Amino acid sequence: MRSSVLPPRNAGSGVPVVALGVLALAAAVQHRSPGCAALGLALLLVPLAVYVLLRRSLRGVTLERIAPEKASEGDTIEVEVRVRNGSRMSLFHPRASEVYVPEVHAPKHVLFPCRVEPGETVTESYEGTCLLPRGVYSLGPVTISFSDPFGWFQVERTFPCPARIKVYPWFQELRAAERSGDCLSAALADLTRSVAGDSTEFLSVREYRIGDPLRRVHWGLTAHRGFPVVREYARSARGDLFLFLDPYRYAFLGVGKGSSLELSVKIAASLAAHAARRRHRVRLHAGRWAGGGPSDAAGAPLTAILDALVEVRPDGERPIEDVLDQEARQVPPGATAVLMVSPYVRPSRRFEGHLGALRARGVRVVLVVFDDATFPSLYETRRAGSELEEYLARARARGLEAVRVRCGASPRTVFAAPVRRLA
After folding, report:
1. By the 8 A CB rule, do 163 and 140 touch?
2. The dihedral formed by the CA atoms of 190, 191, 193 and 196, expressed in degrees to the nearest 10
3. How many CB atoms lie within 10 A of CB 418?
4. Is residue 141 within 8 Å of 113, Cβ to Cβ?
5. Using an 8 Å Cβ cutoff, are 335 and 307 in contact?
6. SS3 category, 174
């Protein structure tokens, strides 16, 4: 990448030369001097010929911009600009310019070598930082300019070069404290020890019931007790992670990058990245935005979730209770469901019913509630923090894992320690 210090657009100008030619012709007419006439014509025709050839060479120039399609908030990316001189003349002092939108519409300039020979292809690059928040931004057009060898004239041409760059939400690496290094291992261990199923992990023994397979009969204990006894095994635990965001328009807290929605997007991206690295199935539900799927290909489910998170906006028409009416039944037993909500759901009995139903089916439920007392609000007065603490206490008493999130918190601090689990 070359220096961003730009030279003057024109070292000289053809206007003085043309003016001298006009003066020479005027002198030739007044004094009837053939020499002045020849000089005047030369001073007029030579710049004209240079300008015509410069304009013709502009037709043979092609330009291509190569930029990454995806980046994250705060990333610095490299954008390449490739220029090919398809004309019969050399290009002198070429320079390409465009506006890089993710860097708050900053103009970028790319300086090429002093001269590009006919048929030569030159590639240079510039660096841009994604300062704007998550979203999809358009790049282009790109304008290239160059001059003649004397610096008399400068011409330019604009290429549309349409391209889009998708800026993903910023997320943090989450490091689990469990021995296996799996953020879900503690929950899965609890589930396999408490629920009967078809895994190979022994759970308990019980009296034989009609319909039990004979292969589960514990013959030694049957002979000792004098009545049939069968083995019971734990349910196979799953590593599935289901993320529920609440883009309901009345659930929005705070403003800008510090809003509850932006924080929930960062938490969801961090949890999804953490689970996807362990090849767990991750699924996102956020109103009309959804993403995720099986982890058959490395990075595939995470990319789908990040694509969905880019589009999430606080303009949803359905509260989270309506979303759970349709999506809660898709969460299988043994999975983990993380619900990020605002305090407007506190009085909702329907929401509590969904949480209880998930818990009864053997789903680990993590409830992430944003503290409205710490977020600036434009519409409502702030509530006392004690109300939220009482709500979280009731949720924990029902066997849920409840987390309180304040304004400005980071995903790493939210999940720095394992949340309390009550069976």
Report:
1. yes
2. 170
3. 13
4. no
5. no
6. coil
From the list 401, 404, 403, 402, the residue with the least C-alpha distance to 423 is 401
Please choose, from the candidates 212, 257, 211, 241, the residue with its C-alpha nearest in 3D space to the C-alpha of residue 338: 241
Distance set, CA 52 to CA 64, 145, 398 (Å) = 25, 15, 83
Question: Which homologous superfamily is 59-168 in?
Answer: Immunoglobulins (2.60.40.10)
Query: In the CATH scheme, what is the homologous superfamily, with its name and number, of domain 241-414?
Result: von Willebrand factor, type A domain (3.40.50.410)
DSSP secondary structure code for residue 296 in this structure: -
User: Domain limits of the chain?
Assistant: 15-58, 59-168, 196-234, 241-414
Tell the residue number behind the tokens 């960062």, with chain if given.
Answer: 266
Q: Residue 420 has what pLDDT?
A: 38
Residue type, 217: V
The pLDDT of residue 191 is 39
Tokens 């070429």 belong to 94
Distances, alpha carbon 100 to alpha carbons 50, 124, 140, in Å: 34, 16, 8
pLDDT tens digits, one per residue of 342-357:
888 888 889 999 999 9
Q: Residue 389: its pLDDT value, please?
A: 86
- List, for residues 359-398, the tens digit of each pLDDT value: 988 888 999 999 888 887 655 545 555 688 888 888 888 8
DSSP secondary structure string for all residues of 7-75: PPS-SS-SHHHHHHHHHHHHHHHHHT-HHHHHHHHHHHHHHHHHHHHHHHHHHTEEEEEE--SEEETT-
Buried (b) or exposed (e) across 46-83, using 16+ Cβ within 10 A? Answer: bbeebbeebeebbeebebebebeeebbbeeebebebeb
Distance between CA atoms of residues 259 and 414, nearest Å: 16
* 169 SS3 class: coil
Which regions of the chain are under pLDDT 70? 1-12, 175-203, 234-239, 291-300, 377-386, 416-423
Cα–Cα dist 423/421, whole Å: 6
Helix (H) or strand (E) holding 163: strand 163-168
